[in-house]
């Protein structure tokens, strides 16, 4: 690990790869925006600022650490939100408008937004089931089967039961493409609604091989964890691009979100650095996932431009203190991505940056209490309407997967 320790200094790190074959189409849309804006001088749809208020987005990576750092960060954030708001029963979900999560991040997002689980309790579940949530299979903590932990937490809850917009991407083997489970589509029809325990199991690469909607019309073949895990979330390790794209293209629920100035995004990454010291299929998958996560981070960070210091906050381990606990990673200095140039250390620690996010979230919460104009119009689950932009993608995937399902 000596080499890794020397690599990360105050100067920019060695450059990251300039492309990654497994990046999904939503990530490519972000790159196309960057290309038109920064290479050809065209105006970017990610620019702009809204005087009404900012949409608060929570994005949680899958990560090889099984969500340990993200869970620790959420526990700290929730405690700080309770202190600043003066409400000891406040939850993370009260201060965000949308959550997106892949792999273990999908479990955390669903637990907080559908079960309203306290962040401390979610952290405990993650700690007891690290292997399952990181896609490494094995026994699920105290449970005999890996997927049993998801059944225990979510019971009969479905995607449409989430209190607020929820996005959980996974990889569909039948159509060879990413598949996004979305509350916005689930409230419209049972063809877009899925049991949450199956969704989270599929996102982590464990559980049933086929996931079916409530009415059986939409099916997908989940990518199973292979040789130590990571395959299920490697292609969509960082869901931030999915979340940003969903907000900017969903004018019914986010009518005033026109650009980066209208968003405040908290993106939680992982703490475990991939290693090539012992090459294997599982380590290569983890490296692929880490590469995809970093590429999305760099692209989104650049797209936010000058507002990224306040409107886009990325929390992840800096890789220096390998083997340290997730809580210890919060005391490390944060890292900032520089598009196609790697990362550099920041002056603040991850914990200090989380505290700053908490202050922004509480300020926005108080501002909304005094405003008569709603920033977000959450679609009620009992009122079906015309499908959102992501529904057309789901219909296509449904058609492809239905014909190829066993």
From TrEMBL:
It comes from the Eukaryota. Residues 381-399 have a biased composition (Low complexity). It is an enzyme of class 3 (hydrolase). GO terms for biological process: defense response; lipid catabolic process. Its EC number is 3.1.1.-. SUPFAM superfamilies: FabD/lysophospholipase-like. The keyword Hydrolase applies. Residues 377-406 are annotated as: Disordered. InterPro entries: Acyl_Trfase/lysoPLipase, PNPLA_dom. Keywords: Hydrolase, Lipid degradation, Lipid metabolism, Plant defense. Residues 58-244 form the PNPLA domain. One of its GO terms (molecular function) is hydrolase activity. Pfam families: Patatin. Lipolytic acyl hydrolase (LAH). Possesses non-specific lipolytic acyl hydrolase (LAH) activity. Hydrolyzes phospholipids as well as galactolipids. May play a role in disease resistance. Belongs to the patatin family. The nitrogen atoms of the two glycine residues in the GGXR motif define the oxyanion hole, and stabilize the oxyanion that forms during the nucleophilic attack by the catalytic serine during substrate cleavage. This is Patatin.
């Amino acid at each position: 690990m000596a080499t890794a320790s020397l690599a990360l200094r105050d100067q920019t790190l060695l450059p990251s790869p300039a492309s990654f074959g497994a990046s999904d189409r939503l990530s490519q849309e972000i790159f196309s925006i960057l290309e038109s804006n920064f290479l050809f001088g065209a105006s970017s749809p990610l620019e702009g600022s809204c005087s009404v208020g900012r949409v608060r987005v929570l994005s949680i990576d899958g990560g090889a650490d099984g969500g340990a750092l993200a869970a620790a960060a959420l526990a700290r954030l929730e405690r700080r939100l309770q202190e600043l708001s003066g409400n000891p029963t406040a939850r993370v979900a009260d201060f965000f408008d949308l959550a997106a999560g892949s792999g273990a991040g999908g479990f955390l997002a669903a637990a907080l937004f559908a079960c309203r689980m306290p962040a401390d309790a979610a952290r405990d579940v993650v700690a007891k089931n690290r292997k399952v949530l990181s896609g490494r299979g094995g026994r699920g903590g105290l449970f005999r089967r890996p997927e049993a932990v998801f059944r225990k937490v979510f019971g009969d809850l479905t995607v449409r039961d989430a209190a607020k917009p929820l996005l959980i991407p996974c990889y569909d083997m039948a159509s060879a493409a990413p598949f996004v489970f979305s509350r916005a589509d689930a409230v419209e029809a049972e063809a877009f609604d899925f049991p949450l325990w199956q969704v989270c199991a599929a996102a982590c690469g464990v559980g049933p091989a086929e996931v079916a909607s409530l009415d059986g019309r939409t099916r997908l073949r989940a990518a199973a964890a292979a040789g130590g895990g990571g395959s299920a979330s490697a292609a969509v390790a960082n869901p931030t691009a999915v979340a940003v794209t969903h907000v900017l293209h969903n004018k019914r629920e986010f009518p005033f979100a026109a650009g980066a100035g209208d968003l405040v995004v908290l993106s939680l990454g992982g703490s475990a650095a991939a290693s090539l010291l012992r090459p294997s299929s599982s380590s290569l998958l983890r490296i692929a996932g880490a590469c995809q996560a970093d590429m999305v981070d760099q692209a989104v960070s650049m797209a936010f431009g000058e507002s990224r210091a306040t409107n886009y906050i990325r929390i992840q381990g800096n890789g220096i203190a390998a083997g340290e606990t997730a809580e210890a990673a919060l005391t490390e200095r944060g890292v900032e991505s520089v598009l196609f140039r790697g990362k550099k250390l920041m002056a603040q620690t991850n914990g200090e940056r989380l505290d700053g996010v908490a202050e922004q979230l509480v300020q926005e919460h108080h501002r909304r209490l005094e405003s008569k104009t709603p920033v977000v119009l959450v679609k009620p689950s009992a009122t079906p309407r015309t499908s959102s932009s992501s529904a057309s993608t789901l219909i296509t995937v449904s058609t492809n997967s239905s014909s190829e399902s066993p």
